């Protein structure tokens, strides 16, 4: 190895170590926050008889849901625990989970800087909550992140300044965003903002609630990071009425067998709202990494061979 290569390798190892320490401390902050806000932490499930269909959603681009057969049963690997979260909110109350998700993204997504085919999201659900309450909770969370990163030694090692979080953040409808930035608004809109913003009213999966007083409007929200970093979080008030859920599964033309187990459990759901945010995307944004895979020790980038 030449002297320059050795220096580069050392710098890469130092940056990686700094980012991994940052991920660890962001996890500690996330755990502290949800605990203090009265949430019960559940352990994740990775296999289920039903999982998030991840569609229809203009932001989703998976090739397929991963299935496996085991002792005569068909299971899915979790695209997300959203369906389990509704049951958990009904049975337990305010819950959160550090949830490993597998999403088999198309290879092209490898160059977006923000897609992984295996990642961890902090996923939470609150019985009886409305959208505005969830957005306020998330904004409080980012104040804790702001405190964590302010004094974190990783930034000196990385030679970057962490961003400041100054909520409350603007709430913009996807209709306004499409008018201003075109239908593929996520990236240009993200580049146009200097603070995160909320994008509301997405037409997407059956479990997000349609506004009963305004059909065609959806009670969901994404948090978008600024400076081109894109989506941070997705969430919604949920559809809880079993008949409406059935009708919407039919509307979406998705295979009803894949949701039979969910529908069997979903007869007496309670109104709830929640969201999930990617831990790796959070660490990427605060550490200004060019790719979300840079904060993983074992990279899971679509189209890249995995190291281990
Ligand atoms: N976890 C998200 C939610 O709460 C869904 C997702 O994983 O995309 O809506
Ligand atoms: Mg999303």
Percent strand:
15-25%
| Highest-level CATH class | Alpha Beta
CATH homologous superfamily caption = Bira Bifunctional Protein, Domain 2
User: Would you count the extended β strands for me?
Assistant: 11
Gross geometry:
globular
Largest sheet: 8 strands, mixed
* Ligand inventory: aspartic acid, magnesium ion
Average pLDDT level = 96
Distance between the termini: 24 Å
Name the CATH architecture: 2-Layer Sandwich
Number of helices: 9
* Oligomer state of the chains in this structure: single chain
Q: Give, in spatial order, the strands making up the sheet with the most strands.
A: 1-5-6-11-10-9-8-7
Return the string of H and E elements. Answer: HEEEEHEEHHEHHEEEHHEH
Which features does this protein show?
alpha+beta; BirA Bifunctional Protein, domain 2; eight-stranded mixed beta sheet; 9 helices; 35% helix; binds aspartic acid; binds magnesium ion
Describe this structure in words.
It is a single chain. The two termini are 24 Å apart. Helix 1 crosses helix 3 (131-150) and helix 1 packs across helix 9. The chain has helices at 3-36, 82-91, 131-150, 154-158, 174-181, 186-192, 242-251, 260-265, 279-287, and strands at 40-42, 47-48, 67-70, 73-77, 95-102, 118-127, 171-173, 197-200, 220-225, 230-237, 272-278. The chain has 308 residues and is of the alpha+beta class. The strands form 2 sheets. It has an 8-stranded mixed β-sheet. Strands 2-4-3 form a 3-stranded antiparallel β-sheet, with no helix packed on it. Strand 9 and strand 10 (230-237) form a beta hairpin. The chain is built from 9 helices and 11 strands. The protein is 35% helix and 19% strand. It has a single domain (10-295), classed as Bira Bifunctional Protein, Domain 2 (BirA Bifunctional Protein, domain 2, 2-Layer Sandwich), CATH 3.30.930. The mean pLDDT is 96. Aspartic acid is lined by residues 52, 80, 82, 121, 123, 234-236, 274-276.
């Amino acid at each position: 190895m030449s002297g320059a290569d050795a220096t580069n390798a050392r710098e890469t190892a130092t940056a990686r170590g700094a980012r991994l320490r940052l991920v660890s401390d962001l996890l500690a902050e996330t755990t502290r926050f949800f605990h203090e806000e009265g949430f019960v932490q559940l352990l994740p499930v990775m296999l289920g008889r039903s999982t998030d269909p991840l569609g229809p959603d203009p932001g989703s681009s998976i090739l397929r849901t991963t299935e496996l057969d085991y002792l005569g049963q068909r299971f899915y690997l979790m695209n997300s625990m959203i369906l389990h979260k509704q049951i958990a909110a009904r049975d337990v109350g305010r819950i959160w989970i550090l949830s490993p998700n597998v999403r088999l993204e198309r290879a092209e997504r490898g160059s977006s800087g923000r897609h992984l085919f295996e990642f961890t999201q902090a996923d939470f659900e609150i019985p009886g909550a409305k959208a505005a309450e969830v957005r306020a909770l998330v904004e409080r969370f980012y104040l804790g992140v702001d405190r964590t990163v302010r004094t974190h030694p990783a930034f000196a090692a990385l030679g970057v300044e962490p961003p400041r979080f100054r909520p409350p953040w603007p709430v913009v409808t996807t209709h306004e965003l499409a008018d201003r930035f075109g239908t593929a608004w996520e990236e240009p809109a993200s580049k146009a903002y200097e603070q995160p913003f909320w994008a509301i009213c997405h037409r997407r999966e059956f479990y997000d609630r349609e506004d009963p007083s305004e059909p065609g409007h959806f009670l969901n929200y994404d948090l978008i990071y600024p400076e081109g970093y894109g989506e941070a979080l997705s969430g919604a008030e949920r559809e809880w009425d079993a008949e409406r859920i059935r009708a919407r599964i039919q509307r979406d033309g998705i295979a009803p067998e894949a949701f039979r187990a969910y529908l069997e459990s979903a007869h007496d759901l309670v109104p709830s709202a929640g969201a999930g945010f990617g831990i790796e995307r959070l660490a990427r944004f605060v550490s200004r990494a060019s790719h979300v895979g840079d904060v993983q020790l074992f990279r899971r980038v679509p189209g890249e061979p995995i190291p281990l």
